[in-house]
Automatic annotation (TrEMBL):
<dbReference type="InterPro" id="IPR000515">
    <property type="entry name" value="MetI-like"/>
</dbReference>
<feature type="transmembrane region" description="Helical">
    <location>
        <begin position="112"/>
        <end position="131"/>
    </location>
</feature>
<keyword id="KW-0813">Transport</keyword>
<comment type="similarity">
    <text>Belongs to the binding-protein-dependent transport system permease family.</text>
</comment>
<dbReference type="Pfam" id="PF00528">
    <property type="entry name" value="BPD_transp_1"/>
</dbReference>
<feature type="transmembrane region" description="Helical">
    <location>
        <begin position="143"/>
        <end position="161"/>
    </location>
</feature>
<dbReference type="GO" id="GO:0055085">
    <property type="term" value="P:transmembrane transport"/>
</dbReference>
<feature type="transmembrane region" description="Helical">
    <location>
        <begin position="182"/>
        <end position="204"/>
    </location>
</feature>
<feature type="transmembrane region" description="Helical">
    <location>
        <begin position="256"/>
        <end position="273"/>
    </location>
</feature>
<feature type="domain" description="ABC transmembrane type-1">
    <location>
        <begin position="74"/>
        <end position="273"/>
    </location>
</feature>
<dbReference type="GO" id="GO:0005886">
    <property type="term" value="C:plasma membrane"/>
</dbReference>
<keyword id="KW-0472">Membrane</keyword>
<feature type="transmembrane region" description="Helical">
    <location>
        <begin position="78"/>
        <end position="100"/>
    </location>
</feature>
<feature type="transmembrane region" description="Helical">
    <location>
        <begin position="12"/>
        <end position="39"/>
    </location>
</feature>
<protein>
    <submittedName>
        <fullName>Carbohydrate ABC transporter membrane protein 2 (CUT1 family)</fullName>
    </submittedName>
</protein>
<keyword id="KW-0812">Transmembrane</keyword>
<keyword id="KW-1133">Transmembrane helix</keyword>
């Protein structure tokens, strides 16, 4: 059994110390948000920073899940995330698969255009004018289509498809498989690490949709959860934190409860993707 030298033990101690500090820096603010969401407004305003409330209360969550606008925005976020992620994965995987084939006409030009969009874009105003010209304002398609394909994700997935065993594809074509059937029945099932990885990326992107929703959606009934949280913060600031709705005094605990509820879906989803995500992080590192 090998024993660690003194310098190795010192190095490991420094590594663990750095990791502990980094964990506290990341976890402590979120822990504080969770704790405050279970406290009362009076205690938050009187005590300031604390990690254990004197009085535990579920009033903030009860108020939140009775609030019609919150439930509506939560439903909107779910709709935007589910449909948007499906559009993202479908378009990204199909385009990446096409660009991974050397026999595709115009492949080099398309690859250059994809790289170009990573460096330059049309800007906010031209994009808004295009969305308006196509009649997509106040439609969720304005969010889904303007962020349909992330160039970086496309390039990485293209590299994954390029490392795919060509012998398997050739054998499938000999058996009479068309390109669409080959893609759906053979390539995609064998690409689950890549699909799961980018599904998680797109889930986070769509769930956290804020700027595009604020820019393209004028109807407040269609706003996602992030925009609702922004409106809640603005209203609380304008009312100097004395807003009272249906007998409930609105305050910091409600805002913190909204943040917690907003973060929970992603925290719940991640464990189901973790296995594939860990494999997908090595995409392109080893050529099969």
């Amino acid at each position: 059994m090998n024993r660690m030298s003194g310098s190795d033990r010192t190095f490991m101690a420094v590594v663990y110390a750095v990791l502990i500090v980094a964990t506290l820096v990341v976890a402590l603010p979120f822990l504080y948000v969770v704790i405050v969401s279970f406290a009362t407004k009076a205690e938050v305003l009187s005590r300031g920073f604390f990690l254990v409330p004197k009085t535990w209360s579920l009033d903030s969550y009860q108020y939140l899940f009775r609030e019609r606008n919150f439930l509506l925005s939560f439903r909107n976020s779910l709709w935007i995330t589910l449909i948007g992620t499906f559009v993202n994965i479908a378009l990204t995987s199909m385009m990446a698969y096409g660009l991974s084939k050397s026999w595709v006409v115009g492949r080099k030009t398309m690859n250059m255009l994809v790289l170009f969009t990573m460096l330059f874009n049309g800007g906010i105003i031209p994009t808004y004018l295009v969305v308006n010209q196509f009649g997509l304002l106040d439609s969720y398609w304005s969010i889904w289509l303007t962020a349909a394909i992330a160039p970086f994700n496309l390039i990485v997935m293209r590299g994954f498809f390029q490392s795919f065993p060509s012998e398997l594809e050739e054998a499938s074509r000999i058996d009479g498989c068309g390109e669409l059937y080959l893609f759906r029945k053979i390539v995609l099932p064998l690409s689950m690490p890549a699909i799961a990885t980018f599904t998680l990326f797109y889930l986070v992107q769509n769930w956290n949709t804020y700027f595009n929703a604020l820019l393209y959606l004028n109807d407040s009934a269609k706003w996602p959860l992030q925009v609702f949280l922004r409106q809640m913060l603005i209203e609380a600031a304008d009312s100097s934190m004395t807003l009272e709705i249906e007998g409930f005094e609105f305050g910091p605990p409600v805002k913190m409860a909204t943040v917690v509820v907003t973060a929970v879906p992603l925290l719940v989803i991640y464990p189901f993707f973790q296995k594939h995500f860990n494999q997908g992080m090595l995409l392109g590192s080893v050529k099969g």
